[in-house]
Amino acid sequence: MATPFLTTSTTLSLSLSTHLHRLSSSLSSTCFPFKPNLHRVRRNPSLLASYGNPHLFNHEDHHSTYKSLLSTGVLGPKSNFLQMDPSETSCSREILVKSSASDSSNTVISTLSQKVFGVLHLVVSLGIVLAMDKFLKQVFVAAAIKFPSALFGMFCIFSVLVILDTTIPAAATSLMNFFEPALMFIQRWLPLFYVPALVVLPLSVRDIPAASGLKICFIIGFTFRNTKSYLYVQRRGKYRMRKLGDIFCFDPELTVMKLQISVLDSSAAGGWLASLCVAGFTAIAIRKIVKTEMVDAEPMAKPSSFAPIEFWTWGGIFLASFVSAIFYPTALGTTARTCLPFLLASTVLGYMVGSGLPSAVKKVLHPIICCALSADLAAVAFGYISQSGVDAVLGDYLTKVSSNPGAGDILMGFLGSVILSFAFSMFKQRKLVKRHAAEIFISIILSSLFSLYSTALVGRLVGLEPSLTVSILPRCITVALALSIVSLFEGANSSLTAAAVVVTGLIGANFVQATLDKLRFRDPIARGIATASSAHGLGTAALSAKEPEALPFCAIAYGLTGIFGSLFCSVPVIRQSLLAIVG
């Protein structure tokens, strides 16, 4: 008969064996040695400190712990409980090191895969927007429709999003999220796409007589200095100063008119400033009349700033392609293609440098201006070194030939996509658009009419030739629609129209923020409408680069100003009244 001690010992051994078997089965897949719950047996600081860290594990302490367990009498003298041979210890340490390395490699792979997926997402979403723009252009050309296809597409996309938001909100949200990378890319580089027209501006105005050119500049922008404006004229070799109230008393012997352009505290302005004031103050007045309470706009994401690696990459492209084009002018088949890399790089570098200027400097020297100056300086340098002349280089910058594109053609190829992207920005602010619809539409209509009639009147008063005055009537309307408007008038100069639009946008881009601040336009609605109604795309690009909340209202005014202007000029009564004022 077994003694009670043997019975108890056997039972305890069996229960321990069963418990250890279960634990070893659950831990066998990891190859880690079993770690007992030592606080119930004996606290060993060395073993506890080494738990989970093979570098702190002390084998001597482990061996002493093993001996202490034997001395308790719970385990038999021949028990192998917790006994590890050298191969098991080595396996444990190797597994821990491999596990740490595996976690690190998994993190790297995960980060890399996210970046690759982000790039693919950007390429696909931007590609779809570009494809939509190209498809709409082909359809409009085939149908002989002169209306800009991108504007039509913008309003169509906005309508679709609004309908989806009403019926299937999840679908509208999914579409917005899908195109978000493309929208951020376009917003980041938005001003760059309007620069080519500024770069080649010297080619557009070189055939205009000096006296007529100065009068046109006067109509578009004259000077306000300390709330007084002065005009300097040269008569019989002597300069005379006349106040703004006397500028319409022109002498037939007037030979040269010199405009003093000063910076705000002063502000460069004129027809542009007048249009801006009409649009902005009208929006605020209508809001007060209809008693619409202003609410905060939806926050808009801002694009990331430029990294040093981007600057050095474009700098390397510029140097390599510039030197290559000097020694091998037709290395890529034509001079336009060969000059494309360094002219594109100089344009991008100018924008990056301009974006990095202090805020005080950017109020008078906008990144768009830096961008155009950088490209022109590169053209001058290459024309001088290669002895081809700056006109030839600028001609290669914007060829307007799809089979032989220049740097400007590449950038302007995004303009249609830019306009399409405005639909998504408008949709983000749809609540404000609906809430303030009255002030938006009324201010844009009045601003469009004011721009047309004021230009005609001032052109008549300063004695500008009727054909030239007609050519600059749509100075506050985007180029595509401005050209279609002047085609309704006989004898108009389309090159002059494009130049006047560009100069108006240039003034607006450079001075719009400072002027809006001076006029105390605080809300994004008044700022956006005033900007786009007076300086179209260039002003929109300049303002939205710093104030993305104003972009949706810039987009609405940008499109509606052109649409209303086209509609007004299509009405025979209005067109004849404009011609009567012009003379």
UniProtKB/TrEMBL annotation:
Top-level taxon: Eukaryota
The keyword Phosphoprotein is annotated on this UniProt entry: no
InterPro entries xrefs: CidB/LrgB
Keyword terms, alphabetized: Membrane, Transmembrane, Transmembrane helix
Transmembrane spans: 112-132, 139-164, 184-205, 269-290, 311-328, 340-357, 364-386, 406-427, 439-462, 468-489, 496-516, 550-574
One term under GO cellular component: membrane
Name of the molecule in the record: Plastidal glycolate/glycerate translocator 1, chloroplastic
